[in-house]
Amino acid sequence: MMIYLELFLSFFKVGLFGFGGGYAMLPLIKQEIVDAPHLWLTIEQFADIVAISQMTPGPIAINSATFVGYTVTGNILGSATATLGVCIPPFIIMLILSKFYFKFKESKYSEKVFYILKPAVVGLIGAAAISLVNKSNFIDYVSIILFAAMFIGAMKKIDPIKLILAAGAAGIIIYG
Amino acid sequence: MLPLIQNEIVEKNNWIKEDEFLELLAMAQSAPGPIAVNVAVFVGYKIGGLPGTIITSLGTVLPSFLIILLIAMYFKDIRSNSYVEGFFKGVKPALAALIAVPAIKMAKKNKSGAVGTIVSLLSLYLVAVLNISPVWIILAAAIGAILIK
Fold first, then answer.
1. C-beta atoms of B33 and A18 within 8 A
2. Which of B71, B95, B111 is facing A54, going by the closest CB pair?
3. Residues A78 and A3 sit within 8 Å (Cβ to Cβ)
């Protein structure tokens, strides 16, 4: 039973502090599932789930909750517990905001907070990118070439799904 | 994902007006959690109160949940296949690039001046190098903003 409670609380935390959308939530998700004390996934598995999330529709927070929940417990209940955990905080917060929509609209409060929060989130996304630059993801010089090619592609606004598929196809040809 | 959301709730179903959608988006982005879920909660509440909220949230979450569940169930078995292995070896270095680019683009659009640049670099350093929890970064940024202004 403890594992379900831990899954729920871990993803509750991700849902509660996951500001700035998908990429910004990655360091938080990584910390909860890869780092001590949980050690639910290895850094390789974490990169797997990021890759899968990029190729499937839906928010990465939910994808990783569902994936980790299943991987850790081996059943659907684990998946559902983690997914519920990540959804409850935003659900409650948005419900309150929706209720007081017009009051919120007129307050300058959120603007003030975002003056600092937004750049902090940029840093978090940068940290997410850096955490993926490691020995298990960069295995040889081909990795560096692929990284450079995808970097240029993304700067030129090519659809990320096309870039992922291209990198994957290159991987199959070279390593498969 | 945003164009899809806009098409569904503004153009197809007229649940929310165009200008209201932009405000909703700002609100959904300023709350924690996945933006799609946040938008769903708001639209559900507006149309059908609390029951509406539950239904729209389930509608947004269920497809991802089912797809990922299916993948998680069979992933172990196919992961060692040499083609799948090759695919992931190619994709993994690409991921770092795909995440670095939005960070760089967002940093270029920084509207908080020198303060913004310092905060971005500090948050990057604390999380990437010192492995500080992003929870502290978020809390410190929010509290700091309230104190400064």
1. yes
2. B95
3. yes
